[in-house]
Each structure stands twice: as structure tokens, then as C-alpha cells.
Amino acid sequence: MAVRRCSRSACARPAVATLTYVYSDSTAVLGPLATFAEPHTYDLCAEHAERLTAPRGWEVVRLAPQVYDEAPSHDDLVALADAVREAARPPAPAPEAATAVEVGRRGHLRVLRDTGH
To answer: How far apart (Å, rounded) are the C-alpha atoms in residues 58 and 21?
Structure first.
């Protein structure tokens, strides 16, 4: 998977946020990095996302946290370890199927008797 780069000229850092302009509302919206690169949006690195300013009279709406931590946090690593442990556990044995004997039938309905295992 290719790493998307910052849209700012001469910046080769990885993008962490996506900027979208809503011209009708004079608003710049900065949010988490979009799943896909879209036309008319700009991917920004952490430094350029932090320093973003909008034209005079425009509002900046920040949907992403101010701190862009590129490394996994301790909680992320613990959650990943827990998920790996859970996936490695052997599956629980299936409960024994109750054995039943058909003792009667009426149309599509059946009468079953448990053999008591």
C-alpha cells in the first residue's frame, strides 16, 4: 500500500489529515486522513495540519485531534496483543448434540423424545 504524501509543495512527509474547502459556507474542514484520495481535497502532514490557517473571513473546522501521533499508542499495542491472544485460543468444544428419537409425526411437525445423554 502506497503512503500518501502531503499535498504542500516540496513536502515529502506522510499525510495524516485531509483538508476540504466548503466554498458556499466559507469553511475549511480539516479531518482525519480520508480513506481514498478525492479530487478537490488536500492531504496534509502533521506539521502543515497544525499550522493551517484559512483566508480572512473563513472558519476552520478541525474534526481531527490537534496532536497527530504517527506511532501506535500503548493502548493500541495492548489491544492488538489481546486480539492476537484471542485469535490463538483453540475453539471451545462444541456441546454434545442431544440425541433424540422421533416418536410421532403430524404433517410437517415431529414429536421427539430425548434419549437422556
So the answer is: 10
